[in-house]
Amino acid sequence: MKPQIQRVGLISRTDWKEALDLSLKLIECLGRGGLQVLLEPELAKSIGREGLAKPVEKMNVDLVITVGGDGTILRTCLSLPKPEPPILSINLGVRGFLAEVEPDDAFKALDEYLSGRLAVERRPRLASFIGEERLPDALNEVFVTAGAPAKLLHVKVRKNGVEVDECLADGIIIASQVGSTGYSLSAGGPVLDPELEAFVLTPVCALVPFRPIVFPSKSVLTIELIRPSRALVVIDGHYQREIDLGGPPLIVTKSEREARFVQFKRDFYERLRSRFLFRGRKLNEA
Amino acid sequence: MKPQIQRVGLISRTDWKEALDLSLKLIECLGRGGLQVLLEPELAKSIGREGLAKPVEKMNVDLVITVGGDGTILRTCLSLPKPEPPILSINLGVRGFLAEVEPDDAFKALDEYLSGRLAVERRPRLASFIGEERLPDALNEVFVTAGAPAKLLHVKVRKNGVEVDECLADGIIIASQVGSTGYSLSAGGPVLDPELEAFVLTPVCALVPFRPIVFPSKSVLTIELIRPSRALVVIDGHYQREIDLGGPPLIVTKSEREARFVQFKRDFYERLRSRFLFRGRKLNEA
Amino acid sequence: MKPQIQRVGLISRTDWKEALDLSLKLIECLGRGGLQVLLEPELAKSIGREGLAKPVEKMNVDLVITVGGDGTILRTCLSLPKPEPPILSINLGVRGFLAEVEPDDAFKALDEYLSGRLAVERRPRLASFIGEERLPDALNEVFVTAGAPAKLLHVKVRKNGVEVDECLADGIIIASQVGSTGYSLSAGGPVLDPELEAFVLTPVCALVPFRPIVFPSKSVLTIELIRPSRALVVIDGHYQREIDLGGPPLIVTKSEREARFVQFKRDFYERLRSRFLFRGRKLNEA
Amino acid sequence: MKPQIQRVGLISRTDWKEALDLSLKLIECLGRGGLQVLLEPELAKSIGREGLAKPVEKMNVDLVITVGGDGTILRTCLSLPKPEPPILSINLGVRGFLAEVEPDDAFKALDEYLSGRLAVERRPRLASFIGEERLPDALNEVFVTAGAPAKLLHVKVRKNGVEVDECLADGIIIASQVGSTGYSLSAGGPVLDPELEAFVLTPVCALVPFRPIVFPSKSVLTIELIRPSRALVVIDGHYQREIDLGGPPLIVTKSEREARFVQFKRDFYERLRSRFLFRGRKLNEA
Fold first, then answer.
1. Cα→Cα distances D261→C271, D87, D123, Å
2. Residues in chain C with pLDDT < 50?
């Protein structure tokens, strides 16, 4: 089915010339196709198109294109307007585990999507709550840390109200299926198959042995702070929020809002294999 | 609901006096209750009750009682008659992660079960196939190894026919939810929550980085041998079967037959926490 | 040989009543013995003895007593006056891996030391340099981090000028023999035997596989920042110093100044075994 | 200094045509240079030169050339005659961490060595004893295992007679500096710098947490069997010897006999970096 696309939002890294060049070409290409283009303000400024600037959270668009690595996708997801448009992600980073389309395929992928020949893939996210307040959904992970280098975090973890265990560590990660190949993996967590409806709790540098635990995605996890008196919740590496000892605990569960990505090519395990080949590429591109 | 129990099978470690003593008391107690008792032949011989001997696989009983540690439960599960009776497991080992009932509670638990006051818990198992042949179901794990110390195994893993990755390691474990706290955990695998319908693939001493992967339990995994020319499949640490290069691959998926255990007391995470306290006990009881 | 002790410095946690009570008793005991006592200013204030206050770095004393856990010892070591007095450490924390003396033995240990019946043990430290500047010596570890949660650090490591490898991780630890049982252990590093003259480089949550490496203590390690533009050097969890991209690299090697501890009882492996028994104690005492 | 070379021993994999071809060319080249060549019997048979056959342990030669991977070097080292000749190793395996010379450089390296332009590098080995009996020295590692898949080993480890800890695991590795990049690394052990005089004790799949420990190479380790009643000592993956419960324990320390290798090119960390790039090559060459 051909998607009804009239307005497209464009978000890009602005610190790489390659990304800005590709963004300019995309703007031109979309314009030729009669589509209206909106730009994230920083990008608009970087390429002298301030007239097209619009904050991401106010972009009333039918499609969002990201140009950059996984970091660009993650921060875009944190501020998408509701209802959320699908994302077509173009990979300009080495760590492009989330990003679908290599730069050389950008125009082909755009064309195929506009013609209705590409599927949109749904990816689960994690919802987090502190008392009445709902934090932004996480595509990759919710990370709780004492917030200072080498400072120990001590929390009690409950699942559906029942104690799982206490954890003494640098921090604790709750990662979605998508996020299981990100920070959680570096901390020693397992990979979750894309068809598994689950999330994983992974400690970072546990002082006392505490193993990664995989929960069904419908589980409601409660993270209760024991020490220190203040800790930091970090979502997808970008959003930060403090929690306080004695205040309401952090609650994490599956979000009812999934992210939507235009699917171009590679299957999950093909990506995973190339993720481990990563070291072969030049490290300073990372 | 009160279970209809007329015949009870008893399986016990025979190398611990404590286990034999408890077995004798259980036989007496069951007899007083008018129940017929059958004994595993080795146990029957050890306590001079050869008249009650019956191989486990031929025990036509309504309940099986095991006296010992997890090893006793695992080997019992490998040879239960069909349809399988539920198991009431009495823990005489330090590693009693599976075993439900401490020795002091044995008679109380038996009494409560016979009165219909204890639930029977179902635990998923793994089915394994080599070509047309079906191997015994695994309660804990299916382990593939080159079969000689320090010899490298090289396999290709597929999920539902699609390549996951190749693995070069001492061996590879496919562990059920129950088994996720056993050998797989020692090899670096995650814990799977009891409500998660999944199994986990965990390499042992991978030469090339290969991370544990958690699959939905309906997945069909294929393990294809690449090297050496012959490898060993070990189920629950007891059953062994060779596979050959060029022969049919090993196929592992969820079994349609679940094991049934009389549930006495502790919840999963309480057990898990005490599992990590294990070191506190005397190691030579292990 | 009986040590010549006239002045004693006392440093204590001030947030535990138990520590303050023991400090008061120690002051009284030392006074009865005709010794002059100096107190860290915060302690002096907490117990109303401001007249005895003296900053640690200006304490011209023959012995320092610490009351608290390993954290108290580490921050004391960072600010000892030169030449450094030996430390008698009384353990009021659960994690007392460094601390020698249990509270009940405090007066016995003090008495034995003053009578010349206890040895003083030397423990190697790490020296760090940024250009011409020398940072405080580390008893446990030098930790380099991007300084923000979930932000990636990218450094190049050299040994005696020769490239070892690049490292992409949350951070990188260089731990002394003493520190090998601390933060480095939580990050996956090995234990170094007390007789081994070595230190260990351990990454924290490496994105790209990078294994802990053990170097002879005479090695000169250079940590050159590649990304981000600014990173943080944290010594023994207390001292912090920024380093900048393009500025002089961090250099770490064995310090010529060893720390000196009054040795009371337990040998290293006895401590190590009880370190792993730690989980058995109540976690909230940690 | 030009080495005095008259006789050369040649050992090669015989299951790869490429290795046999290279061996034939080496024989021809050495013959033209007026050197006498001796062949390992299996190689001699494979290439129809039975007249040159001589068991490795009886080769009275001035140089040994190995053609193959690390496995070929390891089994050669286990059976070298005394006094041991230096080894020139040509790498025909993917895992050539020990092997120095790539096939294309074989004749250049041989020529340079014979002309006295290549240094001979010494590499420490481990000596093992069971009671009065001395086992062959290990270049890589001494491995103790229960000897059956998934069977638990329980040992007590002492250093210079003092208890280190008990270990419950699949097995336990004592690896030399050279071996620290081999099996020990796969089991989670650290890398030891080539200038570090040390060896490392690494458990394989420890049931109870037991971390790798690095000891000075002069340490004398005692491994005392607790369970099962019989275990297997495996040296460098090739030599096997049983030990029995109640019999003399296994003793491991630095050997007074170092192995000698002709050094051609790459430094240790260059090799280590390419070791981690390994995954990029075709796995089935491994």
1. 41, 5, 8
2. 278-286
Other CB atoms closer than 10 Å to residue A264's CB: what's the count?
23
Q: Find the catalytic residue in D15, D62, D70, D236.
A: D70
The answer to whether the CB of D192 falls within 8 A of the CB of D138 is: no
> Higher-confidence residue: D98 or D199?
D199
Cβ contacts (< 8 Å) between D163 and chain C: which residues?
269
Please tell me the distance from the alpha carbon of residue C221 to that of residue D126, in angstroms, as a whole number.
28
Neighbours of chain C (3+ CB pairs under 8 A): A, B, D
**Does D145 contact B at CB distance below 8 Å?**
yes
User: Which residue in D185, D196, D219 is closest to C211 by CB distance?
Assistant: D185
Smallest CA-to-CA distance from A120 within A258, A234, A223, A17 is with A258
Confidence (pLDDT) at D14: 94
Task: Choose the mutation target among C70, C97, C170 for the interface with A, i.e. most A CBs under 10 Å.
Answer: C170
Yes or no, beta carbons of A214 and B197 under 8 Å apart = no
Q: In A, which residues are within 8 Å of B267 by CB distance?
A: 162
Instruction: Report the chain D residue with the minimal C-alpha distance to residue A279.
Output: D277
Angle between helices C17-32 and C106-114 (to 10 degrees): 30
Interface check B67 vs A, CB under 8 A = no
Contacts of D282 in chain A (CB under 8 A): none
User: Phi/psi of residue C218, each to 5°?
Assistant: -80, -10
How confident is the model at residue D278, as a pLDDT?
A: 45
Residue B207 forms contact with A (CB below 8 Å): no
Whether A70 is catalytic is yes
pLDDT digits (tens, 9 = 90+) for A169-223: 999 999 999 999 999 999 999 999 999 999 999 999 998 889 999 999 999 999 9
CA geometry: angle at D17 spanning D15 and D22, to 5°?
Answer: 115
Provide the β-strand partners of residue D156. D166, D224
Q: Which chain D residue shows the shortest CA-CA distance from A274?
A: D280
Interface touch B193/A165, C-beta < 8 Å:
no
Walk me through the domains of chain A, giving residue ranges and CATH numbers. 7-123+258-285 (3.40.50.10330), 126-254 (2.60.200.30)
Determine contact: B282 vs chain C, CB below 8 A.
no
pTM of the predicted structure, to 2 decimals: 0.94
- D284: confidence class by pLDDT, cuts 50, 70, 90: very low
Q: Mean pLDDT of all residues in chain D?
A: 91
pLDDT for residue D18 is more than 60? yes
A211 touches chain B (CB under 8 A): yes
Neighbours of D182 (CB within 10 A): 26
Return the half-sphere exposure (C-beta side, CA atoms, 13 A cut-off) of residue C117.
Answer: 7
Catalytic residue among A15, A62, A70, A165: A70
- Measured CA to CA, the distance from residue D28 to residue D181 in angstroms comes to 35
ipTM of the complex: 0.93
Asked if C239 reaches chain A (Cβ–Cβ under 8 Å), the answer is no
What is residue A281's predicted lDDT score, i.e. its pLDDT? 37
Instruction: Tell me the C-alpha distance between C260 and C86, whole Å.
Output: 5
Q: How many CB atoms sit inside 10 A of residue A78's CB?
A: 19
Q: Which residues in chain B land under pLDDT 70? A: 1, 94-96, 275-286
SS3 D19: helix
pLDDT mean over A242-247: 96
